[in-house]
Specification:
Pfam families: DUF4336. Keywords: Signal. The longest helix is centred in the middle third of the chain and has 17 residues, at about 340-355. This protein has helices at about 5-20, 60-75, 170-185, 200-210, 315-320, 325-330, 340-355, 370-375, 405-410, 420-425, 430-445, 465-470, 495-505; strands at about 115, 125-130, 135-145, 145-155, 160-165, 190-195, 215-220, 245, 270-280, 285-295, 300, 365, 395-400, 450-455, 460. The protein is about 25% helix and about 15% strand. The strands form three sheets. Strands 1, 2, 3, 4, 5, 6, 7 and 8 form an eight-stranded mixed β-sheet that branches. A five-stranded mixed β-sheet has the order 9-10-11-14-15, with helices on one face. Helix 6 (about 325-330) crosses helix 7 and helix 7 (about 340-355) packs across helix 9. A hairpin with a 4-residue loop joins strand 10 (about 285-295) and strand 11 (about 300). Among the domains are: about 5-270, no CATH class; about 315-410, no CATH class. It is of the alpha/beta class.
Length: about 525
């Protein structure tokens, strides 16, 4: 959910600490230590076996610039995976890596993060949410085997044709799925980017290129990092009336999209209404902005990162290649695990904790020397679990059996919607009043909602307007009415220290939520091995 600048800073800081060994800083301000893994959604009942090819961009100066931009913004030092069907020596087979599931553009996080599902294998899972009306396509995204679903949603318009929300990578497999929908329901007519989050923007241009007759709609407040380039340079070829910014009532569109004669409102607005949050500009660089879309006929709310739901069963796209689940199902690097439903649930439980709080309280971190030494002793049957994602098969932490169940259950609450802690602790808590006003607009206009389709974690979440509103309770906390965060306080220790540290450094504004955060009372040093 969310390769925001803050997350990049978190990962870079903690990865650096891993590389150099832990060095605690004294005082109350900041100790941003430990590995960080990103977020990055559903399973396919039938895997398509159709071969397709991706046309190569022409060698024009513009195409060359697009390629250079993509490489500069999304390159990684991680070696590319060379997945192949694994030998009989491994317990969990490695899936085949064909051109059908290849995404050759490179790492798509606008950073040096070695994201899964980028220049390596990127399968797609299609799910029909409502027959003849709504479909989703899930792929994976993640760091160091902490994978989460990233999801696009497709809606059939009444007048024929398709409307696509936050498109994912246009692999041959996905394009074939889209062509199948086009054959039955008409062409892709509108492609909408409802966020400024970099991991969604990175695939938007490439997808839009495959449907040049579609009108593209851009979220207000766009930005890029480390070079603030226009989204044009990421492959969006549409121009004029086919290249639009989502209009916000009472506000001018960005200068890039202003014309002498205003364009008419979106033709799909009578079917799909929307409410825009932000943009919120960060003090240093970057922004946060997101739009909630509401499909009136099916009473379905579409969001990107603002709310998610998680339960113990791994989403189908995560189970499509269970090696990452088995990687995290181990208590330590020496353990040999079988591919069973309970082990998949255990691996998912831990993956979620890494993805949401970055430094789970139930792990003990090994020293660099011990981690490297123990990696030499990994059982050969487990040797493929980190292929293309984890360097040298490192597993530099230990879990203590099922002690973390309570931590996961505090986050999950049996699938109840919540706003991810990365947002409530570092982004939206800086603008709580504006955020709650947006929540109120969403729940009052779309009061009859029946489901929420987020871009990450669980899909097709049954939820009411009240459920959506309660997901933001942490932002309503006051000195007289404290509201607890969803994760346990000891799991929020790292995020709280990062929040306080970045505030002290002037990178982000101070929090405007009176949280009385108990996470400040938990240290991080005791999570490191004393050996």
């Amino acid at each position: 959910m969310r390769v925001l600048l803050i997350e990049i800073l978190l990962f870079v800081a903690t990865a650096t600490h891993h590389a150099l060994g832990f060095t605690g800083t004294h005082g109350n301000s900041k100790t941003t230590n430990l590995n960080k893994h990103i977020k990055s959604p559903s399973f396919v009942d039938e895997e398509c076996e159709h071969d397709a090819t991706i046309g190569r961009a022409s060698s024009t100066r513009r195409a060359a610039l697009e390629k250079m931009t993509a490489v500069a913004l999304t390159g990684t030092f991680m070696p590319k995976s060379a997945l192949a069907v694994s030998s009989k020596a491994t317990i969990i087979p490695s899936p085949s890596f064909t051109s059908d599931v290849s995404w050759p553009l490179g790492k798509v996080a606008f950073s040096l993060l070695p994201l899964a599902g980028t220049s390596s294998r990127r399968a797609t899972v299609e799910e029909c949410i409502i027959p003849d009306s709504i479909w989703t396509h899930d792929q994976i995204q993640g760091v160091v085997n902490v994978n989460v679903p990233v999801r696009q949603t497709v809606i059939k318009l009444k007048g024929g044709g398709l409307w696509v929300h936050n498109p994912v990578a246009p692999t041959p497999q996905l394009i074939r799925m889209m062509k199948s929908l086009e054959e039955k329901y008409g062409p892709v007519r509108h492609i909408v980017l409802g966020t400024v989050a970099l991991e969604h923007k990175a695939t938007f241009g490439a997808f839009s290129k495959r449907f040049p007759r579609a009108t593209v709609w851009i979220q207000p407040g766009q930005w890029a990092f480390p070079v603030d380039l226009s989204i044009d340079y990421l492959g969006v070829n549409q121009r004029g009336a086919k290249f639009r910014e989502l209009p916000v009532p009472g506000k001018m569109v960005s200068k890039r999209f202003q014309t002498r004669k205003p364009y008419p409102p979106p033709e799909w607005e009578d079917e799909i209404e929307y409410e825009v949050l932000g943009p919120f500009k960060f003090k240093s660089v970057g922004a946060f902005s997101e739009t909630a879309f509401y499909h009136k006929e099916t009473k379905s709310l579409l969001v990107t990162d603002t709310v998610v739901s998680v339960t113990k069963t791994p989403p189908p796209i995560i189970q499509e290649d269970p090696r990452a689940l088995m990687f995290h199902a181990r208590d330590d690097i020496s353990e040999v695990v079988e591919d069973t439903p309970s082990n998949r649930e255990r691996g998912w439980r831990r993956m979620v904790q890494f993805g949401l709080v970055f430094f789970p309280s139930q792990i003990t971190v090994e020293s660099v020397e011990d981690a490297i030494s123990e990696a030499k002793n990994i059982d050969p049957r487990m040797s493929n679990l980190g292929d293309g994602a984890v360097p040298f098969n490192l597993y530099p932490w230990n879990w203590n059996g099922n002690d973390d169940v309570k931590n996961f259950e505090a986050i999950s609450m049996q699938g109840k919607l919540f706003c991810p802690p990365i947002l409530t602790k570092l982004i939206l808590d800086r603008e709580p009043s504006e955020t709650i006003r947006w929540v109120q607009r969403v729940t009052s206009r779309f009061s009859d909602m029946k489901r929420v389709i987020p871009c990450h974690l669980n899909n097709n979440v049954k939820a009411s307007a009240s459920d959506f509103s309660q997901a933001f309770d942490a932002l309503r906390s006051t000195s007289n009415n404290m509201k607890a965060q969803r994760p346990l306080a000891d799991d929020l220790a790292l995020l709280q220290r990062v929040s306080d540290g970045l505030t002290n450094l002037g990178v982000i504004a101070p929090s405007s939520v009176c949280d009385g955060e108990p996470a400040r009372s938990f240290g991080l040093l005791d999570r490191f091995s004393k050996r």
